[in-house]
Each structure stands twice: as structure tokens, then as C-alpha cells.
Amino acid sequence: YGELSKRIGGVPDPRNLAKPLGELSTICKNNNMPLISAIVVNGETLLPGEGFIREFFCHIKDEKEKVKQCIICINEVIAYNNWNNLLKLLKNELMI
Fold it and tell me: pLDDT by residue for the chain (96 residues), tens digit each?
């Protein structure tokens, strides 16, 4: 989260990235794209944050299965090559 915050100029604070990242992944989910925020990971666990896991995997009770699903999501994001679709959706939504 800290690295992402630095890359976008330090604003927002890393602790405030959960909401916009969740919104991006919700847009992705609603448009049959990988959950892009899966690649924003905790530096120690190398997994997405608890908010991501709660939002997208609350139906999974087994912790090992949650980790497995996170890894699958990360790999899907890495393999996906149509991210221009997300950019188009965001431009249309923001009308820029």
C-alpha cells in the first residue's frame, strides 16, 4: 500500500486506499475482469488486505482457501491483457 501511495504522489495516505481500490475491483467484477486491487498487497503477507478478502471472499470460511483464491486473483490480474477496457470504463464513468 505504501509503494502504491508513493507512486501516485503520496496522496492518498496508504491507509485511505481501501475504498478507491475496492471501487476499482467492484467495477472489474461487474464487467467480468480480474479484480485489479488483488495486486496491491501487504508487504509482509504478500496478500491483498483484509478489506479485499472480506469484500470478495466473505463466503469462504477456510483461511487456506481464502489465500488460494487471493493467489488465483493475483495471477488473473497478471495474465489479463485488456486493461484498456478498465481505462475506457473509468473514462466513461468520469466523463474525461
Answer: 677 767 667 665 656 777 888 889 999 999 999 999 999 988 899 999 888 998 999 999 999 999 999 999 999 999 999 999 999 998 887 755
Cell of 92: 466513461
Grouping H, G, I as helix, E, B as strand and the rest as coil, residue 41 is strand
Distance of CA 76 to the CA centre of its chain: 11
Cα–Cα dist 71/77, whole Å: 10
The burial of 34, by beta-carbon neighbours within 10 Å (0-12 exposed, 13-18 middle, 19 or more buried), is given as buried
Q: Decide: 17 and 5 in contact? Cβ < 8 Å.
A: yes
pTM of the model: 0.81
